[in-house]
């Protein structure tokens, strides 16, 4: 598929590898020891401008924990000014007042992970005491402020109260709730090398991810498949370029042509069937996913 047929509509912007939590299943292997990488604020602004120029419509700021990145507010304002829709995927434990103001002023959407209705259960996953209390309080605060918020529950530990977590989010007023199993990337791989077979096959389809060092990946999980670096090559040259063609050919060789079953981790806004697509995509055509006991949609109660 050519770049003209596969327009870049969405990008994850991983602005930091620093996180105040240390979840066992973190696909990015982020932690309190993470860094902001080598991308400067001008680098990120230039990247955002390039995304806007080539027709992208939405970005999601991720990490690590993006609210720990000191220039997040500035980048949100820049993306908003460039005409991009903005979502921030945050654990919602560390929201400064000025960020709340920026979320409102720039029409930011939020997404968060929520592991249990039990504080002990949730904090066991995050390895951060008090994280459940702060996340739950900020979910309520976001909704009170009229900020759109999606919630997702990843099944990490045996006996984890995932259904109860989904019901608790619904009781708070969260209308979009997804669920998934742990994926074998980052710390969750337990040291095993990542493979293309572990991906869903939608990688580089209308989307890419850009990391803290400027590396461009076909998705947030496919960070072992670099297709370029925005610090030395323009996005216009990377997208549809020879390295991307090689990577997508490797993915197609494993997954075949066309849509593949897709149960995206972290309830990312591009894919289904566990969440509707973002407005700029407007469609979703994955093959029916295996929704067995370990996977897929948890969903809010009727």
Give a structural overview.
Keywords: Iron, Iron-sulfur, Metal-binding, S-adenosyl-L-methionine. This is Radical SAM protein. By secondary structure, the protein is of the alpha/beta class. β3, α3 and β4 form a beta-alpha-beta unit. Strands 6-5-4-3-2-1-7-8-9 form a nine-stranded mixed β-sheet, covered by helices on one side. It is globular, with a radius of gyration of 18 Å. It has eight helices and nine strands. The C terminus is likely disordered.
Short description:
The protein contains eight helices and nine strands. The protein is α/β, with parallel strands linked by helices and 302 residues long. Strands 6-5-4-3-2-1-7-8-9 form a nine-stranded mixed beta sheet, with helices on one face.
List keywords for this structure.
302 residues; alpha/beta; 9-stranded mixed sheet; 27% helix; 14% strand; disordered C terminus; metal-binding
H/E series:
EHEHEHEHHEHEEEEHH
**Termini, distance in Å?**
41 Å
The description of the largest β-sheet is: 9 strands, mixed
- Structural class, by secondary structure, is alpha/beta
- Note the beta-strand portion: 5-15%
User: How big is the Rg?
Assistant: 18 Å
* Outline: globular
Oligomer designation: single chain
Give start-end ranges of low-pLDDT stretches: 259-302
Q: Helical content, roughly?
A: 25-40%
Mean pLDDT: 85
Number of strands: 9
| Count of alpha and pi helical runs | 8
Tell me the strand order in the biggest sheet: 6-5-4-3-2-1-7-8-9
């Amino acid at each position: 598929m050519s770049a003209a047929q596969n327009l870049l509509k969405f990008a994850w912007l991983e602005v930091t590898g620093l996180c105040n939590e240390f979840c066992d299943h973190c696909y990015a292997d982020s932690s309190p020891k993470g860094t902001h990488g080598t991308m400067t604020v001008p680098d990120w602004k230039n990247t955002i401008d390039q995304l806007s120029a080539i027709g992208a419509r939405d970005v999601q700021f991720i990490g690590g924990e993006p609210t720990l990145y000191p220039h997040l507010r500035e980048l949100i304002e820049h993306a908003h000014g460039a005409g991009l829709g903005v979502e921030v995927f945050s654990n919602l434990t560390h929201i400064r007042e000025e960020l709340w103001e920026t979320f409102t002023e720039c029409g930011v959407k939020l997404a968060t992970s929520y592991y249990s209705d039990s504080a002990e259960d949730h904090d066991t996953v995050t390895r951060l005491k008090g994280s459940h209390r702060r996340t739950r309080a900020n979910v309520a605060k976001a909704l009170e402020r009229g900020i759109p918020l999606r919630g997702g529950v990843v099944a990490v530990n045996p006996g984890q109260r995932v259904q109860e977590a989904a019901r608790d989010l619904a009781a708070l007023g969260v209308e979009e709730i997804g669920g998934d199993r742990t994926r074998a990337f980052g710390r969750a791989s337990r040291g095993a090398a990542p493979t293309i077979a572990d991906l869903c096959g939608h990688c580089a389809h209308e989307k890419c991810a850009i990391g803290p060092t400027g590396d461009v990946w076909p998705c947030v999980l496919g960070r072992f498949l670099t297709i370029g670096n925005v610090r030395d090559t323009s996005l216009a040259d990377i997208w549809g370029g020879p390295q991307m063609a090689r990577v997508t050919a490797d993915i197609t060789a494993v997954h075949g042509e066309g849509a593949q079953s897709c149960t995206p981790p972290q309830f990312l806004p591009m894919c289904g069937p566990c969440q509707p697509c973002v407005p700029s995509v407007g469609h979703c055509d994955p093959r029916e996913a295996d929704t067995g006991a370990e996977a897929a949609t948890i969903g809010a109660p009727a």
